[in-house]
């Protein structure tokens, strides 16, 4: 974690970045809500972070928040690899390969929501690693399921793309956790339900923020209809990245763009290691391999829901931020390949 954090600090944006950062910083500074789906979890964390760090401009402090959370994501990824193959070196390599990938680094030095999303996704991979750990422990599948259930519901309070990973991971963990909870299944169901309710609580920020005087907030989350419109991203068509009314045609161009960007954004050596790691995972941990395969299919589907033209560099940059989670999965596989 520390070397990536040092690199991010050395290149941290000193002030107000472009893109959505200005809106996000203002939402956090005023205790409001951001563009759909509102990102209440990030806004709450950023709102508290700016008070906890009493020096520097608000923009610089929230840029720093991205650096810290992205470095933490690399550290949790390293822990997931170490749990799978019992190799600290392989874990460190995986964390570093992820941390220096181009879309990861560029989003680690500005105030954005993608670093926190990467951290939550890394936690999901760490929980998933318990299903195929070198040294299995009887209670760990149950704990992994509880963690994944919590993260899946928490995705609604932050970035919905986390569901693409957390849902297949949760279903993969369900069977071994259920088998291992003989005599305690009612307790398991009760614990999972309680954690899901807890994960819903950040959503309460949206109607609360909507009634704060002077706060920046999107739409009117103070009404039930406004809350649903914001949370479901209705203005963007819910299952699209681009606005539905823009008349753009969604296709597979961004899936091709992502594949073509990998040698430059991630590197040939990590890609070769990831290919080797995928073979290792299929042979040694088929349940985890299945979860990642389903995630890969869902991520590919996500790219087909993007209508922004790849020829426009500015719009292409908007979509490249969504490459971070698939790069996280590739870095996990590259760590296994390195081991």
Describe this structure in words.
The chain is mainly alpha-helical and about 350 residues long. Helices cover about 70% and strands about 0% of the residues. The chain contains 17 helices and no strands. Helix 5 (about 90-100) runs antiparallel to helix 17 (about 325-339), helix 7 packs antiparallel against helix 8 and helix 7 (about 115-130) packs parallel to helix 17 (about 325-339). It is globular and about 55 Å long. The model has no long low-confidence stretch (mean pLDDT about 90).
Could you list some keywords that capture this structure?
68% helix, 0% strand, mainly alpha, 339 residues
Brief overview:
With 339 residues, this protein is mainly α. It contains 17 helices and no strands. The longest helix is centred in the first third of the chain and has 28 residues, at 58-85.
């Amino acid at each position: 974690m520390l070397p990536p954090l040092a690199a991010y600090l050395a290149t941290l944006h000193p002030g107000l970045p472009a893109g959505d950062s200005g809106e996000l910083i203002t939402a956090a500074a005023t205790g409001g809500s951001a563009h759909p789906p509102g990102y209440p979890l990030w806004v709450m964390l950023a709102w508290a972070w700016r008070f906890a760090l009493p020096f520097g401009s608000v923009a610089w402090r929230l840029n720093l928040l991205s650096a810290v959370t992205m470095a933490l994501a690399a550290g949790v990824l390293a822990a997931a690899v170490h749990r799978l193959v019992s190799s600290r070196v392989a874990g460190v390599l995986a964390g570093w390969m992820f941390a220096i990938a181009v879309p990861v680094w560029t989003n680690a030095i500005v105030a954005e929501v993608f670093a926190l999303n990467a951290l939550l996704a890394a936690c999901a991979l760490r929980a998933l690693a318990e299903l195929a750990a070198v040294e299995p422990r009887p209670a760990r599948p149950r704990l992994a399921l509880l963690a994944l259930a919590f993260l899946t519901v928490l995705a609604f309070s932050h970035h919905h793309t986390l569901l693409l990973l957390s849902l297949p991971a949760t279903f993969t963990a369900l069977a071994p956790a259920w088998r291992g909870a003989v005599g305690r299944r009612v307790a398991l169901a009760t614990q999972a339900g309680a954690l899901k309710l807890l994960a819903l609580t950040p959503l309460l920020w949206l109607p609360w923020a909507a009634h704060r005087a002077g706060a920046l907030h999107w739409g009117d989350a103070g009404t039930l209809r406004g809350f649903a419109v914001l949370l479901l991203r209705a203005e963007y068509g819910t299952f699209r990245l681009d606005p539905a009314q823009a008349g753009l045609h969604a296709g597979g161009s961004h899936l091709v763009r992502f594949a073509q960007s990998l040698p430059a954004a991630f590197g040939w050596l990590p890609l070769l290691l990831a290919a080797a790691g995928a073979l290792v995972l299929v042979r040694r941990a088929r349940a985890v391999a299945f979860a990642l395969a389903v995630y890969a299919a869902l991520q590919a589907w996500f790219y087909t829901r993007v209508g922004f033209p790849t020829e426009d560099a500015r719009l292409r940059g908007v979509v490249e931020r969504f490459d971070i989670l698939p790069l996280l999965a590739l870095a996990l596989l590259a760590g296994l390949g390195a081991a």
